[in-house]
Amino acid sequence: xxxxxxxxxxxxxxxxxxxxxxxxxxxxxxxxxxxxxxxxxxxxxxxxxxxxxxxxxxxxxxxxxxxxxxxxxxxxxxxxxxxxxxxxxxxxxxxxxxxxxxxxxxxxxxxxxxxxxxxxxxxxxxxxxxxxxxxxxxxxxxxxxxxxxxxxxxxxxxxxxxxxxxxxxxxxxxxxxxxxxxxxxxxxxxxxxxxxxxxxxxxxxxxxxxxxxxxxxxxxxxxxxxxxxxxxxxxxxxxxxxxxxxxxxxxxxxxxxxxxxxxxxxxxxxxxxxxxxxxxxxxxxx
Length: 286
Description:
The chain is of the alpha/beta class. The protein is built from 13 helices and 13 strands. The strands form 3 sheets. It has a 7-stranded parallel sheet with strand order 9-8-7-12-10-13-11. Strands 1-6-4-5 form a 4-stranded mixed sheet.
């Protein structure tokens, strides 16, 4: 294992600095956030951004450091400062009721929206007016699983680095480009100019997802716009889309929650794009 500092005091300025990252204004000022648990910390250790290593600092109980010696060793080798920490210290810097023994301090890792457009995305999730951090993180995880090229959080959506968002992403935050604070009109205009079809997901949509799939209209580059958990998308946002699409309800359920609907929509596009003739399909060379 690496060589962490001696047991750090709960009154240490470093503990106080990490604890302040629970508040959005401090996260924004420092451009740092907290990642908790072995899965998130492992992803942070492996991630590198424009600033270099993403993980800056790691607090670990002695037990967790022994159990996850590979993570601690990689953190040390990556240049992160590693501290042994008591349960009391972990409780100070953690944002969970039952900390898992590892808490990392990380650099922000969001990408400029312009870079996402330059990469020629084929599948994008746009979170417009999404206020619940757990839902935001779960949609990000769904987008990652479906093979999306990027996620965009508009300026009306929750903070990407809210501890609940980070936990709900289960490491996917570190896997794909995410732009933040983009006005929804700018997001739509930029993606459309890049050749991406804009689909608004709404339970009252005029178009049916099954019908879209049957018509073969889903194989091209697409961006799904997802709205607020309680009241969906406002009319002015719906009006920006090329189509407003509903997920069909074949049973007796009143509706689907945001994350479930996002998973259905993103996987529908992913499958259509990988079918023959889709924008991700591979045509054998002759």
